[in-house]
Design brief:
- Helices cover 7% and strands 58% of the residues.
- The chain has five helices and 33 strands.
- The chain has a single domain, classed as Beta Barrel (Maltoporin, Chain A).
């Protein structure tokens, strides 16, 4: 061998080893383990549901992007917020309403029982999240009320491996600054973690239309502090007890009428859960879980309290996972206690929901089946039974197809039922739950470095709750069950690696209709999607993101049109010393002017730069 080629030959085994390791990591990333879709840990390739897992790497690239921005890049999800960071936000999954997505934090429900939806998205920093699991489609047979469009489960950071410290400091446009720090690890059966984050931004003027009665030409800033922690102890093989906590407290400015005043919202959200997991036999695992979530919102006008709304939710569950020769069984019981308090006095301010659930999934040759059934008894309106069934067939090692049918429902919220405003709007205690029937089919192609899926769905929602004027032209509103919605769509998604480029893309077609009037449901686009390409070259990493949507209507009458848009984001990082790296993100690179909600502004071109210490 030529002398000059000997060093190259010596490097070949290393090069091939690094390439093999990269491909192994890519395969694992394309087929992650997921819990939310069945309430049991399974590989994504074994599931019969439409799912996405957002891993820690993508969250680390978020920079100034909010949790809503991250969700909006995922298949089947549209997100809108009413202005500057810290404002109220909403998720539309597969065209369903903002209250039709159930949100869990470490297995415990989150959100407001008065608004009857999750609106505190800005209070959950990406820096505090380890991973996000997204289940699209009806899931009431697994989780009960609210899961008409799907489920988003957020897992906070956990400890594993040797003791390590992480830290990050960053700043950018709109006088934004952020700092994160914490530690985690495991030893002698113990696992532990603790992370804190502080965030502040001067923001921008939320309402951009000077003709709006709420227009106020000022900056609507936001500041937030959050803490996550976890502790677990495995006291014997297969036996573990643990607890986790999430707390976030922030204040945001917003615009309202009359516009000359200073309006602020103080919102504290917290989530605590504890569990005891016991593998009594090699085939039977029991999990007891207790948790509490709090959504505590306070409105201030000129620094004087003008409104207070608090939700307390206590959740108790006992789940049994049983493996047999004919498949895996799920048996569980749950209890949810909800109570509300504040400036609005409700004739009924608490309710309990007792539930029983059962599930089974199994495989025979190339066939896979899943069935779930759940019974919920609500002290306010009675009982509801929901179910789902799914079938999958694997044609070859790379091709598989699934079909499914499921029902779901959403119980009315406390405002819907009991809200009273002296001389003004009022609730309706005779409301029925919203209910849905969903059909879907999907086709998947999976190989080592690529995953492509095509999913079609048809979701029909009945007894939609709408706040309508009590008489034409009246400013007094009350909710009623009206009409039906027909949501038909398809999603094409790809994730994979071509050469050393990491690629992600999704395209969504949606026909969201009021089944009676034929009009398009407001704030839903017919075509939308996202794509990204990234690469890691030695110590350098870069990523380009594109997010696009066509026109939408801001109102139910389809009289106020909002134009389509496309925005481009850039991310880059450089590892300059061991576990140290610098990173930068530029959002809306081409400074597109667009609307998510009529009259409300969206961010112009903005940049975020920081330094990070993160041992692997």
């Amino acid at each position: 061998m030529y002398p000059r080629l000997k060093p190259m030959a010596a490097l070949l085994p290393l090069i091939f080893t690094v390439q093999a390791q990269a491909e192994t990591l890519q395969v694992a990333r394309l087929d992650p383990i997921m819990v939310t879709a069945t309430r049991q840990a399974m590989r994504s390739s074994e599931l019969l549901s439409d799912v996405t897992v957002v891993e820690s790497e993508e969250l680390a690239q978020a920079g100034q992007s909010t949790l809503g921005d991250i969700l909006a890049r995922q298949p089947g999800i549209e997100f809108y917020s009413q202005g500057s960071n810290g404002a109220t936000g909403s998720v539309f999954m597969r065209g369903t309403s903002s209250g039709h997505t159930l949100v869990l934090i470490d297995g415990i429900r989150a959100g407001s029982a008065t608004l009857n939806q999750m609106s505190s998205w800005s209070r959950i920093p990406a820096a505090q999240i380890e991973r996000i699991e997204i289940l699209r489609g009806p899931a009431s047979s697994l989780y009960g009320s609210d899961a008409i469009g799907g489920v988003i489960q957020i897992f906070t950071r956990k400890g594993d491996g040797p003791f390590k410290v992480n830290a990050e400091v960053a700043g950018g446009s709109y006088d934004t600054s952020s700092a994160t720090g914490g530690f985690s690890g495991s030893q002698n059966g113990w696992r532990y973690s603790l992370n804190a984050n502080t965030y502040r931004t001067g923001g921008f003027n939320s309402i951009k239309n000077p003709k709006s009665s709420a227009y106020n030409n000022d900056r609507d800033g936001f500041e937030n502090q959050s803490l996550t922690g976890g502790l677990a102890y495995a006291f014997a093989p297969g036996h573990e007890a643990g607890a986790s906590i999430f707390y976030s407290d922030g204040e945001s400015k917003y615009d309202s009428s009359p516009k000359a005043k200073d309006y602020r919202n103080q919102l504290a959200v917290s989530n605590f859960s504890t569990y005891l997991k016991n593998a009594f036999t090699s085939n039977w695992t029991s999990t007891l879980r207790l948790g509490r979530s709090i959504d505590d919102s306070k409105n201030l006008t000129n620094h004087v309290q003008s409104g207070l709304f608090r939700t307390d939710q206590d959740q108790y569950s006992w789940q049994n996972d049983i493996r047999t020769g004919i498949g895996n069984f799920l048996l569980g019981v749950e209890r949810l206690d909800q109570s509300v308090s504040g400036t609005s006095k409700y004739p009924v301010d608490s309710r309990t929901i007792d539930s029983v659930l059962a599930g089974w999934n199994g495989r025979y040759l190339s066939h896979r089946l899943q069935a779930n059934l759940r019974y919920d008894n609500n002290s306010q309106f009675g009982d509801k039974t929901t179910g789902s069934i799914a079938y999958g067939y694997r044609f070859t090692q790379n091709w598989r197809a699934n079909v499914s049918y499921g029902t779901a429902f959403k119980a009315p919220g406390f405002n819907d039922l009991y809200y009273t405003q002296p001389g003004g709007s009022y609730g309706n205690p005779d409301l029925l739950p919203e209910s849905s029937r969903n059909r879907e089919a999907s086709l998947h192609y999976e190989t080592g470095l690529h995953h492509i899926s095509l999913t079609w769905y048809l979701n029909q929602v009945n007894n939609l709750i709408s706040w309508n004027p009590v008489a034409p032209g009246s400013f007094i509103y009350t909710p009623v069950n009206v009409g039906k919605a027909r949501l038909e769509g398809a999603a094409l998604a790809y994730e994979g690696q071509v050469g050393n480029f990491n690629l992600q893309a999704n395209y969504n077609y949606l026909d969201p209709r009021d089944a009676e009037s034929g009009r398009q449901l407001n704030r839903r686009a017919t075509n939308y999607g996202a794509a990204s390409v990234g690469q890691q070259i030695g110590s350098w990493e870069w990523r380009v993101e594109l997010h696009a949507s066509d026109r939408r209507f801001d109102d139910a009458a389809n009289s106020r049109k909002m134009s389509g848009y496309a925005i481009t984001n850039l991310y880059g990082a450089y590892n300059f010393a061991g576990n140290w790296s610098v990173f930068a993100r530029v959002n809306n690179v081409f400074d597109r002017n667009y609307e998510l909600v009529a009259d409300y502004a969206t961010p112009a071109t903005n940049a975020f730069i920081g330094i990070r210490y993160n041992p692997k």
